[in-house]
Design goal:
7-stranded mixed sheet; 5-stranded parallel sheet; alpha/beta; binds flavin-adenine dinucleotide; FAD/NAD(P)-binding domain; 2 domains; binds NADP nicotinamide-adenine-dinucleotide phosphate
Length: 310
């Protein structure tokens, strides 16, 4: 049997939303406990340059997240490396069970579990995951030195992944299902100017080809169904992210495919005392700075709610 730890505020997640909530609630003397999850630092730890964090024209994502963690610790937050496997929001105090065996109880909970990469859902994609199929160029790009890769997607992530992969690969083919990208214009300009990049418009990928490893992808033209085989050694899936709401999707109101619903202009969820911040609740902006802003709001909302029940 593991131990039980009680706190006034339990923060689940260690991305910009969680760490900001920790800074604010620690400064409010709420002695928060923050459980980091399997990806301490969150999504920014799998990217390289971040150019839109105010105050830093260039900062490496992992460095920024280390600084946020240090900041939260210095303010007095108790940061725990563990993973919450179940959360009961029907009892008071709320009960969260962690993989280590520890049970965390809390008067208020701030959910900041962010989002996870989406996959195409192809059997061949599953077969080659970790053996030529990846959703993280920063993690796996190095393996494709002098090789050819394909990236699928048309958002900021896909363009960033494609550009990063040009540091290693001899050729990067970006496959997108429409004729225009949704990535920021400045990123698009960099992409189109890079001689190693080729864009295959109006295509989706139906199969990852290979035997021991990946040898190519079978792409299909969405306009006429015509098939094309694009040879490659690696295939990077960058088609967006889904909210990590498994812990609460049956307990809290959600919207737009699993995003936790909050009252407009607040971080209050459908259960009093439970607050949600960051990519877990936001299907529109999904930025580090907006997540941090919501983390701040969640801490302030939790502080006011706790003051009200005391
Ligand atoms: P996340 O960063 O997703 O963090 C979620 C946290 O929850 C993680 O720490 C995880 O371990 C934890 N967690 C999940 N489940 C559990 C659980 N059950 N128990 C405990 N912990 C749990 N945004 C920008 O503004 N600028 C950029 O340049 C930029 N680049 C990006 C590049 C890439 C490749 C990606 C994928 C995203 C990028 N973004 C960028 C978006 C940005 O990273 C996100 O908007 C932001 O990280 C969301 O923060 P968050 O705190 O909501 O959640
Ligand atoms: P996104 O903006 O949702 O884009 C996903 C892309 O994948 C879209 O182009 C979409 O096509 C395509 N797609 C989705 N499902 C597909 C499928 N089944 N098959 C083929 N293509 C598919 O996701 P994202 O790029 O991961 O970005 C997420 C958020 O993080 C955004 O808010 C973004 O701004 C932010 N972010 C910011 C930065 C930065 O500021 N530098 C970097 C990375 C991410 P359609 O266009 O046709 O819908």
């Amino acid at each position: 049997m593991g131990d039980t730890r009680h706190s006034k505020v339990l923060i689940i997640g260690s991305g910009p939303a969680g760490y900001t909530a920790a800074v604010y609630s620690a400064r409010a003397m709420l002695e928060p406990v923050l459980v980091q999850g399997l990806q301490p630092g969150g999504q920014l730890t799998i990217t390289t340059e971040v150019e839109n964090w105010p105050g830093d024209s260039h900062v490496q994502g992992p460095d920024l997240m280390v600084r946020m963690e240090e900041h939260a610790r210095k303010m007095g937050a108790d940061i725990v490396f563990d993973y919450i496997s179940s959360l009961d929001l029907s009892v008071r105090p709320f009960v969260a069970k962690a993989d280590s065996g520890t049970t965390f109880t809390a008067d208020a909970v701030i959910l900041a579990t962010g989002a996870q990469a989406k996959w195409l859902g192809l059997p061949s994609e599953e077969k080659f995951k970790g053996f030529g199929v990846s959703a993280c160029a920063t993690c796996d790009g190095f393996f494709y030195r002098g090789k050819e890769v394909v990236v699928i997607g048309g958002g900021n992530t896909a363009v960033e992944e494609a550009l990063f992969l040009t540091n290693f690969a001899t050729k990067v083919t970006l496959i997108h299902r429409r004729d225009s990208l949704r990535a920021e214009k400045i990123m698009q300009e960099r992409l189109f100017a890079n001689p190693k990049v080729e864009v295959l418009w109006h295509h989706t990928v139906e199969e990852v080809l290979g035997d021991q490893g990946v040898t190519g992808v079978r792409a299909v033209d969405v306009r006429d169904g015509k098939e094309t085989v694009v040879p490659c050694d690696g295939f990077f899936v960058a088609i967006g992210h889904s909210p990590a709401s498994e812990l609460v999707k049956d307990q809290l109101e959600t919207h737009s495919g699993g995003y936790v619903k909050v009252e407009p202009g607040s971080t209050r969820t459908s259960i009093p005392g439970v607050f949600a911040a960051g990519d877990l609740t936001d299907h529109i902006y999904r930025q580090a700075v907006t997540s941090a802003g919501m983390g701040c709001m969640a801490a302030l909302d939790a502080e006011r709610w706790l003051a009200g029940i005391e």
